[in-house]
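Q: My labmate handed me this sequence with no annotations at all. I'd like to see what the chain might look like in three dimensions before we decide whether it's worth expressing. Could you predict it?
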Amino acid sequence: MTPLDCCLEVLVLKTSLSLTTDVLKGLERILPSLQELHLSGCRSIWQLFVLLEEIGQKSLTSSSGQVCVDLPLQCLDLACCDIGDNVRILNRSSQHLPSLKCLLVPNCKLEEKHFQKMSESFSAHPFEMLDLSGNTKVMSMLDETCQYLNILMVLKLVNTGLTDESVAQLPLLKLINLRELDLSNNKLSSEAAVDIANLLRRNCCPLLEHLSLQQNEIESYGACALAQGFKYVPLLKKFFLDKNCRIGACGILEIFQNLKHVSHLEELGLAGIALSVHDCYHIIPLSYGLHYAGVWDDRTCKYILQVVKDGNIQRISQVVADNTGND
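A: Here is what I predict for the chain of 327 residues:
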């Protein structure tokens, strides 16, 4: 075995690569040290599952009858791979990966029948990170596996067709260790935003650092409810509501008013929100200290400018000119 075989910890294979016999032989040599395996878009993925199962079975006992070291793989990224009917063999192979903490299966054409079969993997692995984005009927799996999600730290359900009703069914009450929740690009209205805000108020996710609800259908009162929940997630570092175009000035101002509760905030996304001239007249003066001087700090003013500049340059220029006396 070469030094490379012994120390390689992360492997990223080229998209659309076919897992040929030669590729699999190479994988077999490095798997004993590999901690992250990224196979986004690779073809013939089922052969990997077969290989993992074979290696796992061989490693149960050595020729001398002594138990061998398990494969150390912690992260398996199968994004855009056609898993589908290979779910069962994925379940079997994952039994030989006791260290697996991160499963990424976005855009894998998984349906409800597949998720039901995947529940076996969850009973064996209390995952810390789970990405089911781009698949449909994800709620069926979450319902069946919620008892195994108590240590989950990252949950991504982007573009999974979630509705207000399905958000109400999310097992967030059990996700007390959750750090990141991404429900972007779904069909969520203000009702879902209010439900999430209510969960925050109940201290269901006290460790939450990243909340993303981009590209939904949330309006001003939903944004206001989320903003009022900031005080219950003091560790929040990233908050994204981009492309919820009907949040308006009311929702934006409520968010700014509550930034004082999230002193660790590093990124705030409110791009793609339609602002009228009237909205700009309410918001822009605040960022220039022309009104409410000293009430909001420089960080808040920076966010205000960042938000309103997106797609509203001409309106902003006019408002600034009006408030500074410049033509």
